[in-house]
Amino acid sequence: MKPLNSTIRSSDAAGDLVKRLDAAPGSLVGAEAAWDAFVEQCPEATFFHRIGWRRILEETLGHRTDYLFSERDGQISGVLPLAQVKSLLFGNALISVPFCVYGGVAAQDQQAAASLTEAARALAEERQVDYLELRHRERRNPDWPCKDGLYVTFRKPIDPEPDKNLQAVPRKQRAMVRKGIKNGLQSAIDPDVDRFFPIYADSLHRLGTPVLPRRYFRALQQVFGADCDLVTTTTEAGQPISSVLNFYFRDEVLPYYGGGTEQARALAGFDFLYWEVMRRAAERGYRWFDYGRSKRGTGSFSFKKNWGFEPQPLSYEYHLVRAKQIPEINPLNPKYRLFIAGWKRLPLFVANGLGPWLARRLG
Known about the structure:
Blueprint: E1 5-10, E2 17-21, H1 29-41, H2 52-60, E3 64-72, E4 75-87, E5 91-96, E6 106-107, H3 110-127, E7 131-136, E8 146-147, E9 151-157, H4 162-168, H5 171-182, E10 186-190, H6 196-207, H7 214-224, E11 228-234, E12 240-249, E13 252-260, H8 262-266, H9 269-283, E14 288-295, H10 299-305, E15 311-313, E16 315-320, H11 337-345, H12 348-359
Parallel strand pairs: 5-7, 13-14
Antiparallel strand pairs: 1-2, 2-3, 3-4, 4-5, 4-6, 7-16, 8-16, 9-14, 9-15, 10-11, 11-12, 12-13
Helix pairs in contact: 2-7, 5-9
């Protein structure tokens, strides 16, 4: 029988070890608590480094995970969550972290970071995957191929006072928020995904994008509890028109999965929705608003920039194993344009039936 935390690589003379959580998610209570305690205090760590994602990736999406951590003098010195996403359509990759905008190594020093990076590289070679992908915010491995011109993130501090936050929004975008208020829009925290999922699935269908299964969003609520909520916007008549699932980590709020009906745009439903997330988060003491990842040249990129957020390039770094070049699995790739156009034409019930099978392989 394998030990619960098997050593997969010893480091240099300083004594760092790289280990892997080998037991099923949820069975290593002490080790998982120590992982999250490290993530909570490590400046490089993000919400997507939390141990709960291991359960989501394995039990809900069916992917093999390798949650690596470095250890020095019996204490965790770094973490690297990995999952293997494998499909005939999109290849075989080891990613930190699939379905998440950030990931990669989070360590207390360069020694621990180097040990984890080398362990991940060796694991990718051993598995003979197409590539290893580390989703860092900044360049970490300057000799690795890097995709740093496609994706950006938008992060900005927010004030405890709602009026100050509203005044910080550029004039034209502020007018859209006020339009939503004048239209009588209201917002509420939802206890479940019942209103969110149909809105989100319909929104992705119009974009030509497959949707993850409803059980995935339910699992996010279950696993992350109070650190995951849903804000839904309704008309004066009570009709839901936009909804977003949010994550909370340390002093940050991260609106992550959002969508709206066709009616939402005319009523400023998207603008009001994200304002309400910001307002509610500021009142609860959160001090950073993370708008997440967008691709340059897309509508979501322009929308977030209109709020006064400056784009910050993301550095997705690759160690190529079987692949000859960096993968381009994104809607801007001309290779997928016919697929996207065809997906939009599918009846919604067909897209929602097929979407989860396909989406879980995208990563």
